[in-house]
Amino acid sequence: MENVEKIADDLYVLKFSHREGSFVGITIVLGKKKIGLVDAGFEATPMNYLFPFLKELGRSPDEIDLLVNTHRDRDHVEGSKVIKEKTKANVAIHEYDAEAVEVANIKLKDGQIVELGDRQFEVIHAPGHTPGNICLYQKENKLLITGDTLCGEAIQLIRMDKNIYINSIKKLMQLEVNLLIQSHPHEPFRKAVLIGEETKEGMRASIDYAEKKA
Ligand SMILES: [Zn+2]
Question: CA separation (Å) from 176 to 68, 121, 137, 179?
Fold first, then answer.
């Protein structure tokens, strides 16, 4: 089952279920001439959901020029190989998670600027869930794409020292954010797109869950 959330004329989240009651979302940024992706989903995601969806919009997978993976987990990166093979896209991931994506030809660092569609994003290194976990921040639209940075109640997903995780989220709380896109429906909002006050509440809740962790 897949489901699409349109956020702006050039911005979509394509969600597909991976287990009962949950989903993985990939973000699509449609530029005038090129398409940017955040995360690739599972191996079957590009052929089964992503490419057909782009065709429905009258766009071609050939227009994908950049795929940025938020971190190393298979529900996010596995489709990278197919995207690399079937399109002209460059594939990027943070240098600390790069071993998980053989086809990655761009190793990202904190502070780097990437262009997805016609939008520019700053790479924000936010370790905690994984060592090379990143967020993408677009200051002028106060848009933050967090991937799995906020684990919500699912504290078993925090694979590093919890203080590293908490500090990463505290860094994000300094940013002006009005729209937050996350990959899974964690507590407390159980949805992909958080708006206005929800963005800070979601960050605060993830810190609280982690602080209660033994
Ligand atoms: Zn995930």
Answer: 22, 14, 10, 9
Q: Is-contact 114 120, C-beta < 8 A?
A: yes
User: Which residue's entry shows tokens 């005038």?
Assistant: 32
Confidence of residue 6 (pLDDT cuts 50, 70, 90): very high
Q: What are the residue ranges spanned by the domains of the chain?
A: 2-212
pTM: 0.97
Ligand 1 mean position, distance from CA 183 (Å) = 6
Q: What are phi and psi of 197, to 5 degrees?
A: -60, -30
Q: What is the rounded CA–CA span in Å between residue 94 and residue 56?
A: 31
Angstrom distance (rounded) from CA 24 to CA 76 = 8
Superfamily of domain 2-212, CATH level 4: Ribonuclease Z/Hydroxyacylglutathione hydrolase-like (3.60.15.10)
CB hemisphere CA count around 28 (13 angstroms): 26
Distance from the CA of 75 to the center of ligand 1, in angstroms?
A: 6
185: CA distance to ligand 1 center in Å? 10
Residue 39 CA to ligand 1 centre (angstroms)? 10
DSSP annotation string for 103-131: T--EEE-TT-EEEETTEEEEEEE--SSST
If pLDDT is split at 50, 70 and 90, which confidence band does 19 have? Answer: confident
